[in-house]
């Protein structure tokens, strides 16, 4: 078409024009063939160059297509995807058609890769930042840090691994922040209890822990170790101060008890004594273990120590009076004055431990109260026996009164009292027997002699029974003598006749008193009875209430003069016996 359209420019036309020129010139045939051969060679070279260019272009298209396919395949592998939706697995058509079909898919994969790389870079940046915070690099700069992303593995599985690592680091960071916050809270609490400045302590560990500085907290292992060490040191200080206050509280309580300090004075240090039963964990009130409180408690202990020596004598005398009161009320043995004087001298010279002495006195008072309680039932019967004896003595005196039946003022009251006294006196033997049984049981149980005003009670009761029996025998002899004397008087009256001026109502006191000449004196019997029970009374004295030194027990002299029950019994018996020297009751 081009040859027909442009005949002037076609090769055949030019060749004909060249033949015409050669014919006109008369060019030799050899030259003609040579020129034509050159023309053919030049045309061949032009065609070859065109073919070579076409081959090169085709090869380039093959290479581009291969590179695109390789890149596409690499992107699929790096992104962890099998294929791209919408792109056929097998391509057909010319090279340019194939290249045009893969180019959009390749562009899509490149966009996906870029997004995935950005995701990896963001996750890795956060991982590096949190790792730096955990490592203690508080001045971490995101801009100066190069994030290297492995583009050969951009799969979702890999990014999930990074996200898992990031979550783990987040959890670790939160855990460390919580631990740091807990440590800081503990430091605040302990500082408040101990009266310290918590901000200074926390800043000393690391400035970032103080919120006033406005920087992120350092949560490294080193900081956690320092915080833990700080908390442990504060706990140790808290324990030391609590132990010191325990010691001071016990000392205060001991001194208060020694000196009977009133409640008002004790209340000022109730916050110290209230800690005696508290452990270190239980103490949480702010300001409860400050240096000021410890210094105040130490000053109070020092002051009370200075007052203790001056008040010990007063306290000892008070407890001594209490002990003597218990002993006097229960008619038990009381300490001797010489022994008490020795103890007071020891207190004054400071050669004896005041606390041990008062503790010993308290123990003795406790033992005395316990023994008084055990003697209570017996002492009640002894009191009844003493009252019954008083009634018996009054009845004896009343029975010897010749005017007891006379009509006089108050005679009917004496008659009623005499009736009641006879009832009481008739119960004395049973009461005495019961007392003897209870006393023996008490002595067997405690393995000691029951003393009443330093005299064995059993000896007193047995002595009373003997005297009572002797009185009964004496009364019987007096009644027999009276009968004999009356009979002699009657016989004399029968022989000589009655004498108006004589009276048989008055008998000779001397003859009646003669019946007592053979009786054993009371003083001698009491002394014999006491001598027989001497070993028991000695044991009682050694087993009585000890007052300071156990093992140094001996019979002590009474502090206060008090009439003995035996001497009282002796006087009363003598008075009763003397009544028989007068007229006998009908």
Automatic annotation (TrEMBL):
- Alphabetical list of Pfam families matching this protein: MAP65_ASE1
Q: What is this protein called?
A: 65-kDa microtubule-associated protein 8
Q: Which domain of life is it from?
A: Eukaryota
Q: Which residues form a coiled coil?
A: 44-71, 152-179, 217-244, 457-487
Keywords in alphabetical order, please: Coiled coil, Cytoplasm, Cytoskeleton, Microtubule
Q: Where in the cell is it found?
A: Cytoplasm, Cytoskeleton
Q: Which family does it belong to?
A: Belongs to the MAP65/ASE1 family.
Main localization is cytoplasm
């Amino acid at each position: 078409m081009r040859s027909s359209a442009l005949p002037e420019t076609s090769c055949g036309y030019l060749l004909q024009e060249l033949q015409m020129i050669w014919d006109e010139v008369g060019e030799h045939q050899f030259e003609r063939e040579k020129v034509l051969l050159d023309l053919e060679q030049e045309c061949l070279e032009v065609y070859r160059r065109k073919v070579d260019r076409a081959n090169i272009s085709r090869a380039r298209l093959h290479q581009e297509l291969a590179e695109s396919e390789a890149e596409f395949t690499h992107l699929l592998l790096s992104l962890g995807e099998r294929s791209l939706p919408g792109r056929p697995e097998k391509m057909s058509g010319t090279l340019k058609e194939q290249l045009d079909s893969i180019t959009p898919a390749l562009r899509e994969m490149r966009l996906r890769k870029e997004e995935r790389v950005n995701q990896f870079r963001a996750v890795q940046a956060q991982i590096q930042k949190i790792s730096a915070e955990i490592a203690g690099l508080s001045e971490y700069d995101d801009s100066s840090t190069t994030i290297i992303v492995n583009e050969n593995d951009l799969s979702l599985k890999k990014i999930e691994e990074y996200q898992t690592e990031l979550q783990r680091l987040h959890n670790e960071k939160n855990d460390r922040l919580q631990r740091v916050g807990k440590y800081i809270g503990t430091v605040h609490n302990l500082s408040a209890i101990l009266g310290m400045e918590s901000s200074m302590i926390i800043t000393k560990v690391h400035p970032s822990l103080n919120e006033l500085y406005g920087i992120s907290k350092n949560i490294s292992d080193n900081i956690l170790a320092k915080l833990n060490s700080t908390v442990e040191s504060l706990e140790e200080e808290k324990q030391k101060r609590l132990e010191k206050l325990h010691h001071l509280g016990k000392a205060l309580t001991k001194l208060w008890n020694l000196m009977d300090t009133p409640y008002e004075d004790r209340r000022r240090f109730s916050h110290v004594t209230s800690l005696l039963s508290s452990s270190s964990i239980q103490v949480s009130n702010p300001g409860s273990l400050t240096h000021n409180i410890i210094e105040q408690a130490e000053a109070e202990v020092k002051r009370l120590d200075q007052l203790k020596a001056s008040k010990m004598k007063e306290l000892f005398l008070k407890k001594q009076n209490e002990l003597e009161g218990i002993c006097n009320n229960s008619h038990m043995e009381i300490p001797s004055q010489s022994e008490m004087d020795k103890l007071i001298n020891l207190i004054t010279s400071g050669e004896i431990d005041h606390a041990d002495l008062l503790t010993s006195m308290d123990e003795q008072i406790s033992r005395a109260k316990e023994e008084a309680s055990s003697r209570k039932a017996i002492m009640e019967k002894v009191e009844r026996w003493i009252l019954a004896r008083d009634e018996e003595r009054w009845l004896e005196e009343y029975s010897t009164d010749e005017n007891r039946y006379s009509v006089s003022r108050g005679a009917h009251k004496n008659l009623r009292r005499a009736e009641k006294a006879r009832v009481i006196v008739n119960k004395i033997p049973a009461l005495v027997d019961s007392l003897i049984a209870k006393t023996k049981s008490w002595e067997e149980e405690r393995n000691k002699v029951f003393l009443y005003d330093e005299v064995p009670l059993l000896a007193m009761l047995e002595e009373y029974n003997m005297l009572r029996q002797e009185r009964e025998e004496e009364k019987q002899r007096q009644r027999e003598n009276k009968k004999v004397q009356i009979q002699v008087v009657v016989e004399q009256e029968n022989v000589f006749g009655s004498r108006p001026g004589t009276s048989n109502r008055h008998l000779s006191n001397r003859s009646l008193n003669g019946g007592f000449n053979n009786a054993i004196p009371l003083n001698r019997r009491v002394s014999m009875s006491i001598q027989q029970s001497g070993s028991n009374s000695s044991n009682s004295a050694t087993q009585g209430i000890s007052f300071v030194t156990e093992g140094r027990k001996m019979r002590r002299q009474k502090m206060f003069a008090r009439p003995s029950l035996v001497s009282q019994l002796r006087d009363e018996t003598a008075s009763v016996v003397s009544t028989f020297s007068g007229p006998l009751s009908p």
